[in-house]
Amino acid sequence: MLFIKKILIFAFRNVKKIKIMLKDILSISGKPGLFKLISKGKNLFIAESLIDQKRVPVYSRDKVVSLGDITMYSNEGDVRLPQILNSIKQKEEGKPISFSPSISVEELKTYFSQVFPDFDKDRVYPSDIRKVMNWYNLLIKSGLTDFDEEVEQVSEESKINENENICESNVEKNVEKEDTNVDKYVENENSDEIQFK
What we know:
Blueprint: H1 2-19, E1 25-28, E2 35-40, E3 44-49, E4 55-59, E5 64-66, E6 71-73, E7 78-80, H2 81-92, H3 105-115, H4 126-141, H5 150-184, E8 185-187, E9 194-196
Antiparallel strand pairs: 1-2, 1-5, 2-3, 3-4, 6-7, 8-9
């Protein structure tokens, strides 16, 4: 029974890591494909290519964006990339998209309107659509198939609540200190001096 419990805990931990993995997947300007964040330093971090698993240093001067932070324009506002990737995953049933590198602009827009019908056709360019489709294929081939961010949102909310509680308790402590400091001082009736009790 203990053995099964350990397996379940291990499986749950792995699911948790996969769910927050999209924040650790990076696009680095000037380098092809996507990269997985391995470690962070003060002025640089190490990333591993999802294409050939080579590790590269990434410096603070490099343009880097996390896939979890990317949004795309829609007619109603911005839509986060994980939602779009999930739509593609549902349409393709978890398999890579099969498309030709010489696909026409109209075919790109037709496909993308099936997975993201509300995208802004004036501000989302064919190169953006092609990039999202290539990213999706690379993530699927790398085994990163869960694009949900629920775990991270919960942890961010709990951090916010925790910070609010800390702030409230600090305010209460400061108010109590001020009350005790006021009680320590008593005016002497015979003089204008202030004395401690």
